[in-house]
From TrEMBL:
InterPro entries, per database record: 6-phosphogluconolactonase_DevB, 6PGL, Glc/Gal-6P_isomerase, NagB/RpiA_transferase-like
Keyword Hydrolase attached: yes
Keywords from the named record: Hydrolase
Catalytic reaction list: 6-phospho-D-glucono-1,5-lactone + H2O = 6-phospho-D-gluconate + H(+)
Pathway: Carbohydrate degradation; pentose phosphate pathway; D-ribulose 5-phosphate from D-glucose 6-phosphate (oxidative stage): step 2/3
Presence of keyword Hydrolase: yes
Enzyme class name: hydrolase
Name listed for the protein in its UniProt record: 6-phosphogluconolactonase
Organism: Acidihalobacter aeolianus
Encoding gene per record: pgl
Taxonomic lineage from the root: Bacteria, Pseudomonadati, Pseudomonadota, Gammaproteobacteria, Chromatiales
Amino acid sequence: MKSNGDCHVLPDAEQLYVTVTEHLLHLADAAIAARGRFHLALAGGNTPRRLYERLAALDSADWDRWEIWFGDERCVPPDHPDSNYRMARETLLEHVAIPPEQVHPIIPHARFEPEAAAADYADTMSAHLPLRAGWPILDVVLLGLGPDGHTASLFPGTGILDVQDTPVAAAYVPRLGAWRISLTLPALAHARQLIFVAEGAGKSEILTRLLRGPAAGESPLPAERVSNPHTEWYLDAAARGSA
């Protein structure tokens, strides 16, 4: 992580999520003061669940100024148990006063086609977000880390890693036998802030690999290919391990 952003190590998972929650609120307040809106892209998977529950328990926030986006999505209907949107809805969105029209699911209905859904989401981002050189600009993107070094749905060996002309793309992941839709590397590069969150001893091996960097003949992992000078890593001590 030394070569890919600042790293903050917290003693345990509870303090990790307290710290990330406080930091998100600070970034939200700053964005709202500067531009009147806070555009946040949520991460999927299991890691952010406790963060979303903590956000949902806040006494107050300028929820009417928050706009919610998604960093990636499984290609399932929005009420499916595997849907990132469903997890975010159940843990956060149902409990806070963000206007429904300011929540932007990647897959908003049961009928979809992955590549068309990706193109529609790219169009939605361009229509609602500030633009810089034609690229939509998110204030913060939350990111997790998979044991294979993937982040969002940018998996090793998939063609989406080479996409340079759109902020959102669909990718078939052979080892999962499934389609995913994800922000692309250029979309992450144009965000104002990236926040990686990793928890638990199960993440220590891949974090050690990320710190070491690619060995001779190895390709960079997807998380290593994320290039944004405004990147922060938040880890608990178990995830940090000996990395």
